[in-house]
């Protein structure tokens, strides 16, 4: 299908408004073509999550289908920016695929649980997050082995935290992400959750906060973050793992209290 030149000259926002008004297939095709890069970027970023059971091209193809569906469901008057709307749907797609495949090796799952349980226990005992050395001592591990376990469980923590956030925002069912007005009570719950999440992030160390911000808000890769912070990529991965483990403990603690 040839796309008219006048459509190519329009901004993304103009195209989205135009599609909402008329549901023209040519307009939709132009929108999809402009956002294919976003599908590829997210598929690349989460490659470690699905590399053991499927290919990048397969995820991209699934992502493009999700992108086309997102164009139909998106409402400029009710939803966030289209990039944000699509990103959430694409991440949700990968999370859903990964969980269905049970992609996490059993030993990584076990070791990650042991580390998270240790951090949670020490947090309750000390009234603060334990240092790596304290957690390693509690688990009768050398510091080097503890850090290796953190590195191996990094992707597990990423997907677990992402899914936790996905559930808490009521978005675990991607089909529910339709263009509709959010009920006042849901808005209040989301506000409270984000307030607690912000509190959890603020409780992290400065470098951990920076890594979380660059990874999740700026969507930089570990390599890019390493360059920004002038640290090695393995060190960034370690900081990221520590931050995620702490955030999971913080959020689960508040969840158990019925605060989220």
Can you describe what's shown?
This protein has 260 residues and is mainly α. It has two domains: 5-101, Orthogonal Bundle (Rna Polymerase Sigma Factor, Chain: A); 106-256, PhyR, sigma-like (SL) domain (Butyryl-CoA Dehydrogenase, subunit A, domain 3, Up-down Bundle), CATH 1.20.140.160. The protein is 75% helix and 0% strand. The protein has 14 helices and no strands. It is elongated, with a radius of gyration of 20 Å. The N and C termini lie far apart (48 Å). Mean pLDDT is 78; it is low at 166-182.
Describe the secondary-structure layout.
Layout lengths: L4 H4 L3 H11 L2 H21 L1 H4 L5 H18 L8 H20 L4 H21 L5 H7 L4 H10 L1 H15 L15 H19 L3 H12 L4 H8 L3 H24 L4
Briefly note the CATH topology name of the largest domain.
Butyryl-CoA Dehydrogenase, subunit A, domain 3
* Content-based structural category: mainly alpha
Name the quaternary structure: single chain
- Count of domain modules: 2
CATH class division of the largest domain: Mainly Alpha
Q: Give the beta-strand count.
A: 0
Low-confidence stretches: 166-182
Strand content: under 5%
Assign the CATH architecture of the largest domain: Up-down Bundle
Mean pLDDT: 78
Question: Shape, please?
Answer: elongated
What order do the helices and strands follow? HHHHHHHHHHHHHH
Distance between the termini: 48 Å
CATH superfamily of the largest domain: PhyR, sigma-like (SL) domain
Radius of gyration: 20 Å
Continuous helix count: 14
Main β sheet profile: none
Residues in helices, as a percent range: over 70%
């Amino acid at each position: 299908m040839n796309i008219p030149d006048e459509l190519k000259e329009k901004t993304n926002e103009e195209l989205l408004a135009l599609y909402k008004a008329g549901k023209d297939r040519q307009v939709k095709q132009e929108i999809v073509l402009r956002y294919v890069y976003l599908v590829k970027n997210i598929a690349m970023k989460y490659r470690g999550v699905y590399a053991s059971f499927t290919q990048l091209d397969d995820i991209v193809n699934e992502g493009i289908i999700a992108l086309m569906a997102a164009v139909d469901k998106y409402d400029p008057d009710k939803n966030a920016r289209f990039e944000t709307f699509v990103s959430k749907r694409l991440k949700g797609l990968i999370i859903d695929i990964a969980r269905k495949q049970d992609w996490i090796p059993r030993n990584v799952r076990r070791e990650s649980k042991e580390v998270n349980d240790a951090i949670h226990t020490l947090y309750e005992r000390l009234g603060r997050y334990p240092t790596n050395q304290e957690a390693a001592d509690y688990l009768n591990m050398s510091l080097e082995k503890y850090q290796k376990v953190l590195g191996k469980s990094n992707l597990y923590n990423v997907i677990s935290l992402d899914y936790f956030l996905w559930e808490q925002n009521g978005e675990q069912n991607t089909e529910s992400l339709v263009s509709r007005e959010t009920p006042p009570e849901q808005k209040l719950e989301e506000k409270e959750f984000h307030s607690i999440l912000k509190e959890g992030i603020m409780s992290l160390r400065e470098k951990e906060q920076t890594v979380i911000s660059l990874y999740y808000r700026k969507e930089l890769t570990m390599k890019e973050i390493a360059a920004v912070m002038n640290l090695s990529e393995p060190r960034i991965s370690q900081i990221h793992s520590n931050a995620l483990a702490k955030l999971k403990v913080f959020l689960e603690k508040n969840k158990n209290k019925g605060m989220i």
